[in-house]
Amino acid sequence: MRRDTSGMSFAMQPVMSWLNPFRAGPVDREPATHPKPPVRVDAVRSVMLGHASLVPEACGLRARILRAHDAQGLWYLRPELMTTLAGRLGEGRARQLVDSLDPLFCDAGSVRS
After folding, report:
1. What is the pLDDT of residue 41?
2. How far apart are CA 11 and CA 27, in angstroms?
């Protein structure tokens, strides 16, 4: 995987630059031809809460999901959600559930692998 000068993986640049619009991207990147759609924070929160509800003892995680102020806060809760789900459902199923959140954070074609 290629890396840019900031050390962020090339595949994650579109996601992270969208979550944090004040972070400068690479100089050689073409400007967007149309603005990205706004994240519907409530939609992301709802799906994350649904996934977390599969683990009844994850009340602390559910509280943190409810308290997240924006999409970036929810984005950074993904690893904890993955760990919690993996402990109950296994890593494979947890990965499927967490990966299903990606389209909610960005449009499907913007993440390059």
Report:
1. 87
2. 16
Q: What is the pLDDT of residues 65-95, one digit of tens each?
A: 999 988 889 999 999 999 999 999 999 999 9
Burial classification of residue 105, based on how many CB atoms lie within 10 Å of its CB (0-12 exposed, 13-18 middle, 19 or more buried): buried
Is residue 102 left, alpha or beta, with left meaning phi > 0 and alpha meaning psi from -120 to 50?
Answer: alpha
pLDDT digits (tens, 9 = 90+) for 51-62: 999 999 999 999
Q: Which helix (H) or strand (E) segment is 63 a member of?
A: helix 59-67
- CA 82-84-88 angle, to 5 degrees, is 110
Joined together, the tokens standing for residue 111 give: 């993440």
CA 50 to chain centre: 15
Longest CA–CA span in the chain (Å) reads 47
Give, to the nearest 10 degrees, the angle between helix 59-67 and helix 78-89.
160
Asked whether the predicted pLDDT for residue 17 surpasses 80, the reply is no
